[in-house]
Amino acid sequence: MSQPERPPASADPARQVAADAVVILVFAIALIASRDFAPVARWFPTAVGLVGMAAGAGKLVVDLLAVRRANRPAVTGEPEPDAAAADLTAAPAADLTAAPLTAAGRRELLVWLGLIAVLLALIGLIGLVAAAAVWLPAVLWWKGKRSVPLAAGGAVGVVVVMMLMEAELHVRWPDALFDIYGMLT
Amino acid sequence: MFEAAGAALTALLQPDRLQWLLLGVAIGLVIGALPGLGGIAGMSVLIPFVFGMDPYSGIALLVGMMAVTSTSDTFMSVLLGVPGSSSSQATIMDGYPMTRRGEGARALGASFMASMLGGLVGAVALFALLPVAKPIVLALKAPELLLLSLLGVSMVAILSRAAPLAGLVAACLGLLISSIGPAPAGGERFMFTWDYLYGGISITLVALGLFAIPELLDLVVEGRSIAQRPNGSLRFGRGLVTGALDSIRHFWLLLWGGFLGIVFGLLPGIGGSVSQWIVYGSTTQLARKDRHRFGRGDVRGVIAPESANNSGDAGTLVPTLLFGIPGNGTTAVLLGGLILLGVSVGPDMVSDANLPFLLTVTWTLAIANVVAAACCFLAARYIVRLSVVPSRVFVPFLLVLVMVAAYQNSQLWGDIVLLFALGALGWAMKRLGWPRPPLLIGFVLGTTVERYLRISIDRYGWEFLSRPVVIVVAAIIVALLVLGLRRRAPATPPALVREEAA
Questions:
Q1: Which residues of A touch B37 (CB under 8 A)?
Q2: What distances in angstroms separate CA B273 from CA B57, B76, B80, one per listed residue?
Q3: pLDDT per position as a tens digit, A51-78
Q4: pLDDT tens digits along B63-86
Q5: Which residues pair with B182 in a beta bridge?
Q6: What's the complex ipTM?
Q7: Does B221 contact chain A (CB < 8 Å)?
Q8: CB B166 within 8 A of CB B433
Q9: Per the CB < 8 Å rule, is B295 touching A95?
């Protein structure tokens, strides 16, 4: 568990290069796809695609230079000369930046992605309200370390609130692919 | 006019009408606090009930609800980093970092006070604008509206000062995503045989995906509460008062946000989603010495956008009531409600016969904003405790709520699929340190820019570029871009790093 923390992904120029390549690919696909559009609908995505590819290419060049500098063996204890260039792609001031992801954090992330997948599968099978009534107490008990009565009480509360939202605010829920409730009744 | 204002107030304060106003405020507060549900949802819920109602009571109910959704939507934005509605996205930028620093109550106090005063500024402006609004609104044609939209895009340069290339790429991605679905000039784009995309992608999905999902994932991965410095109940209360005093101390920011909110509210199709970013960006530019604090939990970054949100509601009512041109989706539904009430909107609204009714709208805005702020102040000291609840307890609930909010967009499975797809994009951008607001701005403005550019060229040819207002706004845009790119954000001062680490 006491694994050393990695630097934030934003500081990893290699990942930036990979992301740049993906973005350029997306804009290229958009450019190719926009050739099939009606003429009046084509110019806007074409213009955006071209500007996006140019900006992506510019960022790719800056990041490749940063990768090259990062791989250069340091011979002095002076600050890295690429500080100004790295500033172009570093985490911006006006955003909510992410903390470094540790090995334990990555494991936890996979667990929660799995839990979300389970929730989606349950919604597909029995609908959102029933799925939430099953999934929420289970997650509260397992990951939230809450007692079973408390978790069950929370789930009942959620179902009541959801029913009120449906009745009073006309909110609707994702339906089940298979209406198990209907089959049982 | 003042006599008519007095008559309107007397009419509104009758108990049977006042109760409808309070009911509208209560419904608006609940709907605003739920992520993804905004004024349109609230208006749609209330419309069936106004049929056959006394027009004064009906307008009190509808406008009362509409006026306060942008006050209570702050709870989610500030405490959980989840946009309560499309008009509270910019509040996240500094409100959520304040909560993470243990200053959630202060952020809420500042926000409610700013919302209330911004709403009052809007009501006064609406009163003052009634006689002169017509020539102002009619003077702005498609070329001017195009340039004002581009002014919003130029905020990208300001919001991504430390990463201009990443910001530009993100803005282009937003523009590209906005072009998915039907084109303004006809035809469809980037559907990839998926019928769901026929209606395009909703801003609710983009906002929830970009901001809510990444925050929720990071919270459960880190396994802690949102506020990193748990506080006692006394601190919560004091924080509210401190925040409220912050808003009064930065009164010029309130006026600035209120003024811009009204101006952009007046312009059909621009609305609060855009004005809040313009207000936020211009506020960072106006702060000369310590602008590096923005985005890290500066109370000024909460005050200005919140003031603009509430004053903007008054602005959108001007074209709606005087010309029958709805300024946004909410006022489009409101227009339907007014028809049900038997009210015919248009220039005749400012005639002597209809003036008291029109002024009832102004009074409703003012009273609703005061009542909403008082309710939020009372509720905040309890709701703010959410920020110290362990994330693994409340995130599962919030995850379900976010999915429900996303599903209300079109009530199809595609909503859920897109929510998580955009969530993955937002999470990747966050890990890579790419700014997400430029993507949202690009998305919001993409359709507007395309529509107004096409109308401008069709109607005026390229000569539209020589119109005086166009030249002035273009000069402002160029100046903003140059200033934004030249004054790159400085590295975080060591003192601030220590403060954040504490």
A1: 169, 171
A2: 29, 16, 19
A3: 999 999 998 998 898 888 877 765 444 4
A4: 888 888 888 888 888 887 777 666
A5: B188
A6: 0.78
A7: yes
A8: yes
A9: yes
